[in-house]
Structures are given as structure tokens and as C-alpha cells.
Amino acid sequence: MTPWLKRCFTLLVAxxxxxxxxxxxxxxxxxxxxxGDLPYTDIERAELPQLITAMRDSEVAFAVHVGDMKxxxxxxxxxxxxxFRDLLAAAPFPSVxxxxxxxxxxxxxxxxxxxxxxxxxxxxxxxxFAKPESLGATPFSVIRQSDADFTHGAYQEHLxxxxxxxxxxxxxxxxxxxxxxxQREPGAEYRQRMSAVRDWLDAGFAEAQRKSxxxxxxxxxxxxxxxxxxxxxxxxxxxxxxxxxxxxxxxxSGDVLLIHGDTHVMRxxxxxxxxxxxxxxxxxxxxxxxxxxxxxxxxTVDTEAERLVRIRPRPLRDED
Length: 320
Known about the structure:
By secondary structure, this protein is α/β, with parallel strands linked by helices. It has helices spanning 3-21, 42-57, 78-89, 117-128, 145-148, 188-210, 226-230, 236-250; strands at 29-35, 63-65, 95-97, 143-144, 159-163, 166-170, 215-219, 255-260, 267-269, 283-287, 295-302, 309-315. The chain is 33% helix and 18% strand.
């Protein structure tokens, strides 16, 4: 080996060694909290500060409530909606709210005050989504669909943000019947909102793919019944969403986590099937705790771990 080649080889080895010795500039680890379907009772409302404290002690980067912040028969009045908004606004970390059916779809029930559901949805928008930022004592910036997509300018509750290598987005897809209606064909509100949902979902996955992000996390309230979808009989209120979700997941190269509430059964599984009926391993579903079992999910993102996203159930108290 000539002296010149030997010198080049030495420099290459030294450079490679230096690169291996330097910690990754992109290494990142953080946790966030997901909870929902509570409080349904005065006792559960009184326990919420304990839940918030537990999240704070775990040093979560942010928390997301996936909907149903009251019982279905609790009045949907301004006082109730404002009370929970104040709780999230005072949290010692950024907090995000996703609408559930109990705070708008089902507000037409007599026991809930016989409100107009669309008027209540507008009220939620004015309380929780007035600015392009989260709630909490230290809010972070978010992108609202109403700001990013003028075709669907009314949907400021559809949010998107990025933390580290993960893209997060929220969808207004509530439980009960997704405001589909009692007729065979859905109502106008459903059609318009689901058009916005599909576009927001597609835009989020396109952004993640463009940035080569390895994971997308979606928050919504409804349990869309993946089991019925896998059996070829998706419920009408959620069929449109399930087909759009499957298409988006199959067109994306990273992992996807969908976090929802609605049926009050904490679970983590892989219920989404591809067009051949095979399990899509890159997709996971996590359902949060719900009344009468208060608790939260601690989700950790760690770029240096074997699994990028890990989920830990955190019940507030032990149940017999």
C-alpha cells in the first residue's frame, strides 16, 4: 500500500470510528398519555386531579382525552363543557381533546338537555379549538384542518402535530352512531364531516410518508368495530372510515397506532386486516380505560428501543 493510500485508509477508519462514537443526534425518548370515557360520575370527576398528577409524575410530554368527558345523561350545558375545558387548560402539560358522542351527538336526548347536536359541536369548537394550539399550561402549536384545508374550513377540531419521528392527528369520529342517523342513507352533516375526515387522514399519511416518518398515531373516540369489518360486514356508520383507514395504512410504509375509546374495554391488539384477510402487523389499536375504571395509557416513543412505540396501561386504582 502506498503512503498516500495508507493515509486515506487511516483517515477513513478514523472518521468511521468517530461517527460510531458520537451519540445519534436524532435519538429521542418521550411519553404521552391517552385517556377518555370519563368522568361519568361526581366521584370520577373528583378523581381526575389524581389522574393528572399521575401523568405529571410520569413526565408525559402531553395528554390526549379521546372523548366522552361526561355521562350520556349528564346535561350538555355550557357549565359542563367549560368545566372539563378548564381542567385540561390547567394541566401542567399540553393537553388535547377529541370530541365524543356524549358531548354533542347524544345531546339531543331529553336527559341531556334536549340540545341541538350541531349547536353543541360548534360550542365545543369555540371552547376547545379556538386557537391553533393545544390546551394546558404549556401549550404547543398544532395544525387545524380549518387552517390547512380551505375545502373543509369548518373542522378546526381535526388537529395534526409532530413530535420527534411521530406524526399525530385527531379525527372527529364519535361513538354511538357517528351521527349517521336513523335512515338508510346518512344525513348531510355526516357526509360533509366524513369527507373532511378522509381528506385529513390522507393528508396526514402523505405528510408522514413525505418526511419518511416511521410512525403515525391517530386519536378518535369511536370503536368502529374492526371485528365486523374483518368479517366483511362493517357497520354503516363506520364503513367509510374503515375502508379509508385500511387504504391509508397499506399505502404507508411505517407503523400505525389508533387510539380510541367508546366501549370502555381497555385493550391493545392488531384487529385490522388487509384485502386478503391477513393481519396488518404494522397496525395496532389501543382502547383507553373508561368509566367505571379510571386510568390512562402511557405510550412511550423511544428511537433507540427495539420497538419504537410501547404501550403501558396505567389504572388509577386496583380493581377486584
